[in-house]
Task: inverse folding
């Protein structure tokens, strides 16, 4: 196969005629509940581009929602997964195990924060990982309550819908939800009423007071939080908030769970986002960027907590699939060899500088935020902080038409999030930013 040219190339309108034909087939064959952000049907992808059935080549600022951080066809991922595919596709680790699962567990035990003894269990999806983290925490503490936070997103299963904050499209009409879930205020600096300088202290005090008085710390099995929120709007909690929560959890025998499904594996310029403030979680959930696009997820944590579940209590038919495990080992190899943490930090430097320049020009940009290659802009009504979802949708639509894949997010639908592959070239990165600037200028 010829190497995929790293360039934006538009030969038809977006979406093109062949993509529109496939979209009609999708509409006839797939339920409408499975939505599509940009209906271009991809034939090849890699580096920083996606090529569609019409021959268009689009710049990718989405990475399949932070999944293809090493690219869509990284050499080490393809090599290792292909070799495993030729040997065997499945035995079920719970029936007859294999070395790849153990190798991935060993790698995650080594890479995740903290030098304590750890264990790792592998699953299929981020939601499954979060659900199992809660199961493990409940088994260990013999408690039931789970604490989560405003704007949080943790998945689409019944339990994780309860953990997720946003109604549309994730929870609407799908209840009733799992009980014993309690939502607390998040330290959201941009929208904290008394100002960002007071945010960490006041938000932590409020959350701890609510947990203590409304739930009872002695009833809480786990505190589950994203170190930087994903779907909730790429909100980076005010500095000091996470350490205070972790300290409270430690003092009260609560399992502190870092949901690093979107932030993990070099995305923020560190292996894991909680490292930024030296937070060492009891359990950490990972997925998305773990295996270069193959479905895999994990719960990694303190050995005594992970071992609390009874034999046979954890697992699943496909959990830790051997081909996905091979892909994960290839992704980790790529991250190390290409120093993708450094590349993520470089992407962040470029994007933040350019976007802050745009913020000075366009009053509609209320805030530019993020770390590494996990960057967002929050759009507001000029002159205030009223969320501007219409403008956000318009900018995304304009970017799509110009051949740039961007995603929106946020509880108010007013955040543009940027998740380029960590292997993207700086020329494509800057071209994508030019497209964003042009879209903002045309509002």
Result:
């Amino acid at each position: 196969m010829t190497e995929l040219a790293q360039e934006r190339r538009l030969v038809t309108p977006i979406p093109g005629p062949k993509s529109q034909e496939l979209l009609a087939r999708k509409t006839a064959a797939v339920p409408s509940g499975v939505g599509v952000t940009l209906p271009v049907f991809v034939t090849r992808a890699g580096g920083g581009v996606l090529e569609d059935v019409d021959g268009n080549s689009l710049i990718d600022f989405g990475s399949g929602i932070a999944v293809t951080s090493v690219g869509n066809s990284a050499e080490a991922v393809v090599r290792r997964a292909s070799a495993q595919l030729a040997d065997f596709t499945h035995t079920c680790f719970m029936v007859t195990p294999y070395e790849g699962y153990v190798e991935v567990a060993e790698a995650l035990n080594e890479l995740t924060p903290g030098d304590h003894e750890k264990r790792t269990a592998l699953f299929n999806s981020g939601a499954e990982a979060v659900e199992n983290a809660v199961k493990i925490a409940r088994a260990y503490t013999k408690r039931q309550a789970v604490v989560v936070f405003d704007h949080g997103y943790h998945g689409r299963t019944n339990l994780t819908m309860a953990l997720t904050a946003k109604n549309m499209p994730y929870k609407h009409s799908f209840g009733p939800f799992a009980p014993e879930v309690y939502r607390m205020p998040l330290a959201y600096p941009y929208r904290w009423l008394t100002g960002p300088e007071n945010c960490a202290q006041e938000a932590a005090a409020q959350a701890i007071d609510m947990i203590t008085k409304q739930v009872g710390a002695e009833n809480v099995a786990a505190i589950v939080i994203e170190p930087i929120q994903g779907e909730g709007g790429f909100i980076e909690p005010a500095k000091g908030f996470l350490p205070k929560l972790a300290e409270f959890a430690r003092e009260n025998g609560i399992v502190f769970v870092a949901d690093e499904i979107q932030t993990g594996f070099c995305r923020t310029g560190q292996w894991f986002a909680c490292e930024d403030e030296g937070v060492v979680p009891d359990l950490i959930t990972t997925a998305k960027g773990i295996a270069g696009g193959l479905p895999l997820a994990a719960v990694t944590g303190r050995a005594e907590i992970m071992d609390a579940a009874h034999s046979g209590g954890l697992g699943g038919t496909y959990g830790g699939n051997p081909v996905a495990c091979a892909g994960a080992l290839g992704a980790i190899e790529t991250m190390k060899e290409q120093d993708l943490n450094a590349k993520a930090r470089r992407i962040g430097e470029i994007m933040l500088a350019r976007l802050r320049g745009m913020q000075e020009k366009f009053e509609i940009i209320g805030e530019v935020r993020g770390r590494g290659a996990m960057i967002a802009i929050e759009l507001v009504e000029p002159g205030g902080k009223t969320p501007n979802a219409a403008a956000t949708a318009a900018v995304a639509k304009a970017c799509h038409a110009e051949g740039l894949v961007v995603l929106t997010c946020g509880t108010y639908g007013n955040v543009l999030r940027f998740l380029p592959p960590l292997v993207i070239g700086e020329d494509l990165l800057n071209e994508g930013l030019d497209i964003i600037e042009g879209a903002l200028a045309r509002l």
In short: The chain has a mean pLDDT of 97. The longest strand covers residues 365-371. The chain is about 40% helix and 15% strand. Residues 10 and 56 are 5 Å apart (CA to CA).
